[in-house]
């Protein structure tokens, strides 16, 4: 998760879109009053959205079918908002002039987010720029998080957690994000994808990330899959903002 968190931070910092509306601060609710990030995963026979053999952009590690994943149900879940919406490890860490061998990840995350928040407050003109922050992408390395103590990482998971609630509760990094965003002055729109992604314990490559049974990847996502939903939700929000 370590590297992913930092990457998302950078990605989020460049997700700027021009616009001239004042946006609600830190919420999953756009103009129409519906929170697209709250809901559950439903089975949909019309899924998956695309065939990876027709898509030249899928990296090998995420093409789980091609890597031998035998089950296919995981391809068939669509995110359904509750509301009726039309719509590698880092070896050191530097802070100022100090270099630390290691640091509690949540502490490091909060420090990094505060640096970013200060940058937004100093540099962003909300009349011209809309700022999105993408929430943390969760992993599924510990079955006791979803009430399956005996699970070996996310291996063999074929279904999402059903319903809208994840047994382990909110991701600790999500709470950090919310804390930092509460303190930011400029309007920032949170792409609140953490909770909906927590439900998808079935969505990771597991042993099908590198040609089958070579390693265990329960932090990235198979494609087609969960990141497509993140993109759909972002797209839906952009349409809401500009209509
Ligand atoms: C993000 O979504 C979760 C689940 O719907 C919710 O509990 C949380 O309050 C949301 N966070 C924000 C800042 O809206
Ligand atoms: C999984 O989580 C539980 C509960 O937080 C903890 O007791 C256990 O040590 C964890 N297992 C591993 C392998 O980290």
From TrEMBL:
Superkingdom of the organism of origin: Eukaryota
InterPro entries: TBL (IPR029962), TBL_C (IPR026057)
Membrane-spanning intervals of the chain: none
Keyword annotations: Signal
GO molecular function, one term: O-acetyltransferase activity
The Trichome birefringence-like C-terminal domain, residue ranges: 78-236
Pfam families: PC-Esterase (PF13839)
GO cellular component: Golgi apparatus; membrane
Signal peptide: 1-19
Family: Belongs to the PC-esterase family. TBL subfamily.
Listed name of the protein: Trichome birefringence-like C-terminal domain-containing protein
Upper taxonomic lineage: Eukaryota, Viridiplantae, Streptophyta, Embryophyta, Tracheophyta
